[in-house]
Amino acid sequence: MTSKLNLLQQIRIVLCQTSHPGNIGAAARAMKTMGLSQLVLVKPKSFPHAEATAMASGATDILDNTQVCATLAEALHGTTLAIGMSARRRELSHELVSARTGVQRAIEAAHDAPVAIVFGTEMSGLSNAELDHCQLLAMIPANPEYSSLNLAAAVQVISYELRMAVLDHPGPTRTESAPLATSEEIERLYAHLEQVLIEIGFLNPAQPKRLMQRLRRMYGRARLEKEEVNILRGILSATQTPRPPRPSPEA
Hints:
Belongs to the class IV-like SAM-binding methyltransferase superfamily. RNA methyltransferase TrmH family. Helices cover 43% and strands 12% of the residues.
């Protein structure tokens, strides 16, 4: 178990397809003021960039150690919880909670494994495809008459909430000891599940509708353990290559 402020080193701030390099630097500054250091960028438009360095204002060490990824799946590698930040409700999405509640869940999970807080692009936020990689959706309760919040300002709010949650956190309350499945293990399960559903004719790839999105939402609520993922994949493998049932033992 990791204690108190060291928990912040388990939190990953992930920015997806950031358009303005200045927002990256300002986000790094916001993180450093609250003790966070793990910044990950997914397909930024311009990075490294002089504007990012200028806006970081002394937080260039975070920029120097920033990880740049080609996909969100890569950015979430090793995490067991990804919380997507959204400024609006979605028609079909994961459980939606306040930013404060989401941060509290992040700190709880961070005792055992890395956690990611995921932000979308400045103009449109997270896409539905990006939200599919998250297990929880959180929203900053801004003024509904003017809810437009700058990306770096949103990172500052979440960074502050993370620091306060750590300082107020009494310790882990989760009692189970079984490790949770990582993001990449869950993604392999989804790929395997989709393949089997196509093979058995349950999923038409030409008209998939929202089946996989709904299944992702369902399993996301379950917070699957590693062993549970292994069981599910074993069932899928047996579905692909069924064997005759074992004969019953004679009485």
